[in-house]
Amino acid sequence: MNNLSLSINGQLQRVACDPLTPLADVLRDGLRLTGTKIGCRTGECGACTVLLDGEPVLSCLLPVAAVQDAKIQTVEGLAGDPRFEALASAMDACGGAQCGYCTPGIMVTLTAALRQPDRFAPGEYEAALKNNLCRCTGYRAIREAIAQVTAGLQSQEMTAGPARNSTATSEGAEALGQADALGKVAIPR
Ligand code: FES
Ligand code: FES
After folding, report:
1. Cα–Cα distance measured from residue 14 to residue 29, given in angstroms and rounded to the nearest whole number
2. What is the pLDDT of residues 29-59, one digit of tens each?
3. Does residue 38's CB lie within 6 angstroms of at least one atom of ligand 2?
4. Which of 103, 109, 123, 153 is most buried when burial is the number of CB atoms within 10 A of its CB?
5. What distance in angstroms lies between residue 94's CA and the mean position of ligand 2's atoms?
6. What angle do CA 22, 50, 157 make, to 5 degrees?
């Protein structure tokens, strides 16, 4: 047992655990952040995706001791980010979540991609999902949701000028804590 400090959703959390415990287990069992799902535990499904310094990572493969110096964001910590909120609405409207088990990982991955428009041209965001499996939707509804969000963001940029600073947006999302937007799509605990 070690005492470890983690930065999670903008808050310092102290946990006592084996340093080799997967981050996903610490989030779910230690901190009750059950938005992060565990599917395969082998890096195949993406259900456990969280952000590490803004980049999507598979938390089932990461020993918790390896992430002590990083900023971790779970799906709960993305509330208030306008990209995440728009995505939650679009997933709801398009039926992008069925059983909902893959949905948090998909939303974390897509929110990270939407924060980096320089890396993904409109129409290419679904490429970000190469590590996220969905067994229910066939991806068509998820693709429709992405298209709806990117079209909305484009028209906002055209009418409101330059996009908001993404770092400020991210910090605002962290400050809001729990993800109200999760209520819009069915996500199992
Ligand atoms: S549970 Fe981590 S990739 Fe499947
Ligand atoms: S909605 Fe069921 S696995 Fe994706």
Report:
1. 14
2. 999 999 999 999 999 999 999 999 999 999 9
3. no
4. 103
5. 14
6. 170
